[in-house]
Amino acid sequence: MLEIVKMLLGMDISDTSKDNLLNHFIKKAIDIILGYCNIDVLPEQYHDVAADLAVFLYNNRDLEGITKKTEGEKSLTIINDIPESIRLALPPPRIRVVG
Fold first, then answer.
1. pTM for this one?
2. What are the phi and psi torsion angles at 50 (to 5°)?
3. CA separation (Å) from 82 to 16, 38, 40, 72?
4. Which of 70, 69, 48 minimizes the C-alpha distance to 60?
């Protein structure tokens, strides 16, 4: 999955200088998806979706916790959720019965 994330970000696959950071966002993306879908293991068919979410998280890493940013006359509202295009590519969340 690391190679896919690097390709999506336009990075050289042989450049390992950001591998630890990218792997962090890959793990974070998988954890978010597992929590959202209420599953224990990410099926392989959703690895590309996890890569897309990892890229989103990496690109927005400086905006975490911010809901709105204003610079001069420009204002930006920040999404703190799974983007709709990624969410729609995931299976519907499962309901777990505990008891």
1. 0.80
2. -65, -40
3. 27, 15, 18, 28
4. 69
pLDDT of residue 87 exceeding 70, the answer is yes
Instruction: Report residue 26 CA to chain centroid gap.
Output: 7
Question: Per residue in 41-76, pLDDT tens?
Answer: 999 999 999 999 999 999 988 766 556 667 788 776
Q: How far apart are CA 63 and CA 1, in angstroms?
A: 24
Three-state DSSP class for residue 96: coil
**19-50 b/e with 16+ CB inside 10 Å = b?**
eeebeebbebbbebbeebbebeebeeebeebb
Strand ranges inside the chain, DSSP E = 68-71, 74-77
Q: Which two tokens stand for residue 39?
A: 């599953």
